[in-house]
Amino acid sequence: MAEEARQGKQGTASGRTIRVLLVDDHQVVRKGLRTFLEIQDDIEVVGEAGDGAEGVARAEELSPDVILMDVKMPGTDGIEALRRLRALDSPARVLVVTSFTEQRTVIPALKAGAAGYVYKDVDPDALAGAIRSVHAGHVLLQSEVAGALLAQEDTGGSQGRGNALTEREREVLALIADGRSNREIARALVLSEKTVKTHVSNILMKLDLADRTQAALWAVRHGIGD
């Protein structure tokens, strides 16, 4: 049955369906998400998990493209699961889907590596669009989340650190914020992928950031790539 469903999907422009893992402690929520997502031609739900630890294990087993992750779960929560996935160098993009709006939840999730953050009352079609967006490499935040992030006090002097970036590094950073891969950046700037990787490493080091998602958020916050 799963194989038949997979063959029946039309897929994305690249011909592949987006493989999604659902991680939420409420079975009713998982069922609702699955019911909606299974009618999408280019999205396939490949598995479910009821907490963060199980989610990490299922991600290793199933190699999903996108993980829909709740934040507040008993046992291992979503933020700890995000940290474990990053430690495992998981290629999956994590879209947090939660009812919690406080900055003390939003900011740690983004710092732990979330590629997007939306609320559970998001319009179903918008959720499908969010999945496609983070799968394409973009950082996706609902307007309220973006506003909270942009309003956060810059206590680390990151704006000053931005002055250390070269013009080429700023160009690379703008393209990271646009969701471009290293290969796409190399093509756009007529550089080798190796050179782009070096620029990305230098950007992260100079801005004291952990990954590309944080770099993209930094760029949005400081008006690079607008």
Account of the 3D structure:
The N and C termini lie far apart (45 Å). The protein has a six-stranded parallel β-sheet with strand order 2-1-3-4-5-6, sandwiched between helices. The longest helix is centred in the last third of the chain and has 15 residues, at 193-207. It is α/β, with parallel strands linked by helices. The chain is 52% helix and 13% strand. The chain has helices spanning 2-8, 27-37, 52-62, 78-87, 103-111, 124-135, 143-151, 158-162, 167-177, 182-189, 193-207, 212-221, and strands at residues 18-23, 43-49, 66-69, 93-98, 116-119, 140-141.
- Going across the major beta sheet, what is the strand order? 2-1-3-4-5-6
Number of strands: 6
Helical percentage: 40-55%
Query: How is the quaternary structure best described?
Result: single chain
Terminal CA distance: 45 Å
In one word, what is the shape? globular
Strand content: 5-15%
Average residue pLDDT: 83
Strand count, sense and barrel status of the largest sheet are: 6 strands, parallel
Helices and strands: which structural class? alpha/beta
Count the DSSP helices.
Answer: 12
Low-confidence stretches are 1-8
Query: In angstroms, what is the radius of gyration?
Result: 18 Å
What is the element layout, followed by pairings?
Elements: H1 2-8, E1 18-23, H2 27-37, E2 43-49, H3 52-62, E3 66-69, H4 78-87, E4 93-98, H5 103-111, E5 116-119, H6 124-135, E6 140-141, H7 143-151, H8 158-162, H9 167-177, H10 182-189, H11 193-207, H12 212-221
Parallel strand pairs: 1-2, 1-3, 3-4, 4-5, 5-6
Helix pairs in contact: 3-4, 9-11, 9-12, 10-11
